[in-house]
Amino acid sequence: MPPKPLDYESINENVKKAQYAVRGELYLRATELQKEGKKIIFTNVGNPHALGQKPLTFPRQVVALCQAPFLLDDPNVGLLFPADAIARAKQYLSITSGGLGAYSDSRGIPGVRKEVAEFIQRRDGYPRYISSPYSLFFLTLHCVNLFKRVLSLVSNLLDKVINYFILYFSDPELIYLTDGASKAVMQTLNTIIKGEGDGIMVPVPQYPLYSATIALLGGTLVPYYLEETANWGLDTNELRKSITEGRRKGLNVKAMVIINPGNPTGQCLSAENLREVLQFCYDENLVLLGDEVYQTNIYQDERPFISSKKVLMDIGPPLSKEVQLVSFHSVSKGFLGECGQRGGYFEMTNIPPETVDEIYKVASISLSPNVPAQIFMGLMVNPPKPGDISYDQFFRESKGILESLRRRARIMTDGFNSCRNVVCNFTEGAMYSFPQVRLPPKALEAAKQAGKVADVFYCLKLLEATGISTVPGSGFGQKDGVFHLRTTILPAEEEMPAIMDSFKKFNDEFMEQYEDHRGYSRL
Amino acid sequence: MPPKPLDYESINENVKKAQYAVRGELYLRATELQKEGKKIIFTNVGNPHALGQKPLTFPRQVVALCQAPFLLDDPNVGLLFPADAIARAKQYLSITSGGLGAYSDSRGIPGVRKEVAEFIQRRDGYPRYISSPYSLFFLTLHCVNLFKRVLSLVSNLLDKVINYFILYFSDPELIYLTDGASKAVMQTLNTIIKGEGDGIMVPVPQYPLYSATIALLGGTLVPYYLEETANWGLDTNELRKSITEGRRKGLNVKAMVIINPGNPTGQCLSAENLREVLQFCYDENLVLLGDEVYQTNIYQDERPFISSKKVLMDIGPPLSKEVQLVSFHSVSKGFLGECGQRGGYFEMTNIPPETVDEIYKVASISLSPNVPAQIFMGLMVNPPKPGDISYDQFFRESKGILESLRRRARIMTDGFNSCRNVVCNFTEGAMYSFPQVRLPPKALEAAKQAGKVADVFYCLKLLEATGISTVPGSGFGQKDGVFHLRTTILPAEEEMPAIMDSFKKFNDEFMEQYEDHRGYSRL
Fold first, then answer.
1. At the N or C end, where does chain A have fewer CB atoms within 10 A?
2. How many C-alpha atoms does B346 have within 13 Å on its Cβ side?
3. Distances (CA, A) of B283 to A126, A389, B191, B269
């Protein structure tokens, strides 16, 4: 009998090729152990609420009211909800035709996209809608733009004139809301990749969303290595080496991904570094994909987050008008941590309108991103302001989360560095630690005998011994012969010391067991 | 200067090829007109809440409480929420580790998937977890299954024995929750399609999700035509003709789509018809994709909805154990109409475990479907029961919506049939009318001069004259030389007569204007 179309041997090879270690062998084993009654600490995925982080009160109040709009007519609503949450819910309901139960425009609700645009403008220090060193000239153009609305008869002509001159800094029409940043990345890569001849430069170690999506779309990943000894720094010589190697293989290298702050590596890129990256993309005709979902998760003061968009605009022409940039953000990270709501956005810079139209069309096929998460996005980029009833509570809650994460990043890095044969760069940002585990030859041999990659072997033993569910470094990519693991810094702060003790006890016993006079794996 | 990677000429050709008329030229023009201040009646997409349908109270109460769990500790909560909504919210929060803000398992929350499985079993009349003519034998196996849990030492061995014999009717492990049924269809087709040599049989007229997704994935659509003169019936001779034609072109025809009730065509398939389809899939080694998102939207009593799964199980072996079937459902349709929440599921039947694992892996790449919509799915398949506090209200609200839709289906079909040169089959189910508009040669020539497909020309004129935004038949596919349009039956019932009058006035004037002694387009 011939195989059926959904039998394993018949299905799409690209589906089989895609690997996603964050929910791979380790996660599946952890789920099994949990079913058997073992207590598991899931540090495999950046999922703060699953580890006890409480949702912020104000955004949840607003969304609950949007879900139950009939409460707004109830005389008792003021007993359960503050006035500013009620006002905000009414405002969102006034801009969604049909409330949360109606498809929005496939790009997202226009009013929320405007809130995002304004957030980007505030964040990056550019005035609304206008960006240029010649501000008087552009201010005039801006007035023309306002005047245009009155003169609808000549609006099409004026439109063309304005668009010819003005450089919008952040335009809601170029911001699309999505069901989470992962979906945004997948849609962007789908637009770029035609087939296996197309190369995408990705940092190694990388978040496996990239390798998995590139495999799924039948493209080719071109790795560039981050420098562990320089706190996972990004070196332009390495970029040049990487693209040369990609082209030597006959690839048409089309795009470059940066993850800032880094996942799994936790580093924050400097403005200088970003300038070099943008210059490189300009010189080599690459689209830059800026994964900036951890932009609020910063745990040191030396290198605050700076967006690729801002650096690009600061550089000015010709780069600011030429480099194609797609930036990603999410409601799942930061202090909101609303992973389960699935909300994200991407912003397009220097992408021609015909391509924007194509991206809109593809977004239309699945009708619209989920609407409640669009509201969360609005609330994230446009939170309560000083003077609002809910401001103090919002500020206290969000500050509390970020400060605790900062302390946890420190406890974790220090904990790893106190372990035998483990070294770990400080988690400057994002939500992860990525320690290197230096394995003795005896351990490598034991892993080989068990038919496992060495870091998978180590992580499985760790899981069985302690219930800590991590992701082996091989799931993110690493240089040959060195081994890592990724863990989130998300377990509750009060549990953190016990978790690190438990890790240390396991690790040091493991190293004792496989002690070997021949040294250990390292760079 | 060479084109950049996101310039139009560089991007993925499959992205350009995909067409999605539901939000195509007509929709874009309607949006423009709306911006200019014209009142638009958006009947282009099945989006009930956008046209004034109120959300059901109970599901919204439960989800609002899940979004704002702190309300559950508030002594005043009982003033705004009934006790059964409070209890249900607590129950959902108890099965989501971390509430709505945490990623769920990539397949959806296990407890909700169990609710879906139980719904399918109730709907299709098979007992929970067990399905076989030899029920005593299988009941014994079921007891073994329970006993197995105690004997964890031998569980792996027993697992294998049980899985060898038992045929689960609906198994939560084979039900995956998704961000809407569209995403479920896209993921399934992505698993099946390797390249342009792969053919997917799709009814014509079809919902363009199918043509767009197949184009996006680089596969080939193999059309089979529904018979308009037989109320859009599905004829197996046509299926054989279609597959023969596909194979003659060298295609590997792998799957067949049915949409039941039909979109855009509104017909309901009989059990006999479904048996023929399943036999055809068995004979020709095709996966059947059963798009059943309109299963609650039935407006006649002669042909109630019957699922492909039930018919397959009723047929019995060998078909019931061999035919690969994927069925789709959604929270966006029925009486819930929660489009903006983006919730759906797919159920896999006779798909081997290795393929199920691959589908799970791909689902993991985007982490999890949005969690609030998973709760809506739970509430849809497991609504309040007689005796519950909220039962009467839930029953009244949902019955009111369905009865009104039934009346609107009738008003609309009758309205179309009263127009000059328009004929329309009765909308037996789903949410659409799909009238044939017989255009005189003069109108065809005018369309040609305007550079438009004839039905696009007609629909644009309709839009400009009346504000009614429809989708031209060419967006769904139709036989050469005949023309249709699709409209939803969703405008508010009280507005329906005025809308149909406005349509009739436009149409009859249009036909007057292009009157032609040479007759009109028709089959």
1. N
2. 29
3. 65, 68, 22, 20
Highest mean pLDDT among A31-35, B11-15, B67-71: B67-71
| Rounded alpha-carbon distances, angstroms, from residue A380 to A115, A173, A332, A344, A389 | 10, 19, 10, 11, 17
Q: CA-CA distance, B433 to A475, in Å (whole number)? A: 51
Q: Give the closest-approach CA distance of A418 to chain B in angstroms.
A: 31
Distance (Å, whole) CA A290 – CA A328? 6
Peptide bond connecting A223 to the previous residue in cis, omega within 30 degrees of 0: no
B356 Cβ neighbours under 8 A, 6+ residues apart: B173, B174, B348
The residue in chain A having the minimum alpha-carbon distance to the alpha carbon of residue B215 is: A362
CA distances from A193 to A17, A252, A255, B217, B367 (A): 16, 10, 9, 12, 22
Residue that the structure tokens 């709306």 belong to: B34
Comparing CB atoms, the residue among B22, B340, B368 nearest residue A370 is B340
DSSP state of A233: B
- B494: Cβ contacts below 8 Å, ≥ 6 apart: none
Q: What's the CA dihedral at B86, B92, B98, B102 to 10 degrees?
A: -120
Helices (H), B433-495: 441-449, 454-466
Nearest Cα residue to A100 out of B19, B195, B331: B331
One-letter amino acid of A190: N
List the single residue in B with minimal CA-CA distance to A342: B370
On the question of pLDDT at A132 being above 50, the answer is no
Q: Are B241 and B225 in contact (CB under 8 A)?
A: no
Q: Are B322 and A81 in contact (CB under 8 A)?
A: no
Average pLDDT over residues A279-292: 97
Mind telling me how many Å the CA of A82 is from chain B's nearest CA? 12
- HEC secondary structure over B199-221: EEEEEECCCCHHHHHHHHCCCEE
pLDDT tier at B522 (50, 70, 90 boundaries)?
A: low
**What's the pLDDT tens digit per position in A112-125?**
888 888 877 777 77
Q: Which bin fits A421, alpha (ψ -120 to 50), beta or left (φ > 0)?
A: left
* A104 contacts in chain B (CB < 8 Å): 340
A61 SS3 class: helix
Crossing angle (nearest 10°) for helices A391-417 and A57-67: 120
**Which of A326, A338, A367 has its CB closest to that of B182?**
A367
Compute the distance between CA of residue B180 and CA of residue B343 in angstroms, rounded to an integer. 4
Whose tokens are 């249709």? That residue is B484
- Separation in Å, CA of B293 to nearest CA in chain A: 14
CB of B221 within 8 A of CB of B245?
no
The reported pTM is 0.88
Q: What is the mean pLDDT of chain B?
A: 90
Residue A236 identity = T
Beta strands in B397-481 (DSSP E): 422-423, 432-433, 436-437, 468-469, 471-472
Nearest residue, CB atoms, B47 vs list A11, A49, A98: A98
Sheet holding A471-472, edge to edge: A432-433, A485-488, A471-472
- Chain A residue with CA closest to B337: the answer is A101
A280-to-A242, A398, A415 alpha-carbon distances in Å: 12, 37, 38
Contact B191 A23 (CB under 8 A): no
Disruptive mutation site among B45, B81, B103 for chain A (greatest number of A CBs within 10 Å) = B103
Q: Which long-range contacts (CB under 8 A, 24 or more apart) does B353-356 make?
A: B354/A8, B355/A6, B355/A7, B355/A8, B355/A11, B355/B191, B356/B173, B356/B174
Q: Using H for helix, E for strand and C for coil, what is the string for A113-132?
A: HHHHHHHHHHHHCCCCCCCC
What is the Cα–Cα distance from B101 to B325, expressed in whole angstroms?
Answer: 33
Which H or E element spans position A457?
helix A454-466
| Minimum distance, in Å, between the CA of residue A136 and any CA atom of chain B | 30
Q: Residue B155 corresponds to which tokens in the numbers above? A: 């569980």
